[in-house]
Queue: 2 jobs
Job 1
Amino acid sequence: MNQDQLKQLVGVAAKDEVLKLPAGQVLGVGTGSTANCFIDALAPYKAHFSGAVSSSNATTERLLKHGFKVLDPNEVSVLPVYVDGADEIDPAGHMIKGGGGALTREKIIASMAQQFICICDATKQVPVLGHFALPVEIIPLARGVVTRELERLGGKVSLRATKSIRADLDQTPSEPFVSDNGGWILDVAGLQISHPLALESQINQIAGVITVGLFAKEKADVLLVSNESGISRIV
Ligand code: ABF
């Protein structure tokens, strides 16, 4: 099976998992190619849910296209389950997220949810987080000061870029990637994250940081992981 097939497999498994919820609940829905597989698998069963809260503009668009009712998180007081992918997950369920740039809304929805179901293929499982560069969303004017603070923690920091608007011209500098919230993203490579909860809290305290893509406080409660032999459910 290739990685796309593994993503589809776990998307279908997550659909089966959330259909165990009583009808009429609101569902939290994540972002990324694995979450997209979940959305597509769930589309025929959308009537089972009263609505969804979405972690990005891209996910909102996909949900609406399938006919889901998308709710503003401010309208929702009880969110039983949030389903989303990850860039890396360790054996305790701590994750690096934000490769897709939606980390802030993902963390908000995760904090609202009673249960976080992480869906991924086995390539995302690691013994220690940090091989994938850690995304940190920032207020643009704080780029310099936040970069220096992150370097002090031992990271190699780069500003995430989007494709140049003039890709035809070699000399054109690329533009900073801008999140759904108007933030920029610093990707921090070279960290060995042995104490995710402590590092999450430390980075959160740097002035100018909107969100760090370390999900230790909001870690996964259930992991559905696909591999060649099928699906494992890890609690
Ligand atoms: C989101 O999508 C993220 O937090 C993570 O960055 C990414 C994983 O993407 P994919 O499922 O495409 O590998 O869940």
Job 2
Amino acid sequence: MKKIAVLTSGGDSPGMNAAVRAVVRKAIYHDIEVYGVYQGYQGLINNNIKEMDRGSVGDKIQRGGTFLQSARCPEFKDPEVRKKGIQNLQQMGIEGLVVVGGDGSYRGAQRLNEEGIKTIGIPGTIDNDINGTDFTIGFDTALNTIIEVVDKIRDTASSHERTFIIEVMGRDAGDLALWSALAGGAETVLIPEHKKDVQEIADKIQQGIERGKKHSIIIVAEGVMSGDHCSEELKKYINVDTRVSVLGHMQRGGSPSGMDRVLASRFGAYAVNLLMAGESGYAVGIQNNKLTKTKFEDIFSSHHEIDEDMYRLTNELSI
Ligand code: ATP
């Protein structure tokens, strides 16, 4: 393979730049021409494709977001629209494409692979909700961002003897909520994968108050309910002073953590290795600290699951 391209798609995540840098540098190291597609699949259709040199990815490894930019492009589901993107790549002699993104981006990559462009996916999302990998790029950074906030909120919560409800990202997956609850020492975590009775949460807070506890922290994933809704529900059962913090998009920003930079660099280089070996239709991942590849169809065949042992542990340690 002589020419490849790379794009970032879907929601951005810290570490995407490090992945693009690795793809570009690894390709150049092996004398492969490498192109950056700006604005995801939208840029592919619009022919927003530029050749990268080693300097194009200089001073990027530490930056959050994605310098290639990302875009939602629902029309990419239409085969006629994809044809335009494929033609743009083929006219430039580009045979392989690395797609950094989430589940939706993988679906686009799978279609491209079936339609003549060799593709490899790299998991880039803060949600950690992609099958075939223990971790996605951006999860560790987002987790650390949340923990920093939880620690700060804990200071003010105990000074005023308040119950704080912190709403974090996670529509379908509770990984960010669960990991931040365990790492932040929260009293309660609400995740989409497990139903929890509000009365039960209120009873727990009450028992804590009776034991002399100065504050309570509840972490709720946005997919369960909003922080405000959680507060209203709680007030039906217990008379406590509650405050709500919605972390929102700050969770997606920031300089990537060391773990995310290393993960992204390993993924990017591995993706190029696979394309050089003539392999395609795979997403790369990490399982038990070993790089792995999983066929796109196997990624879609089941739903991402929460770590049940960790859920149990979080509940056991927050008594
Ligand atoms: P995240 O969930 O972290 O935001 P994602 O990659 O799942 O990331 P989506 O918005 O679901 O984000 O998908 C990104 C893009 O992938 C879409 O805008 C669209 O261009 C393309 N895409 C999604 N689903 C398909 C599909 N079934 N066929 C072709 N392309 C698709």
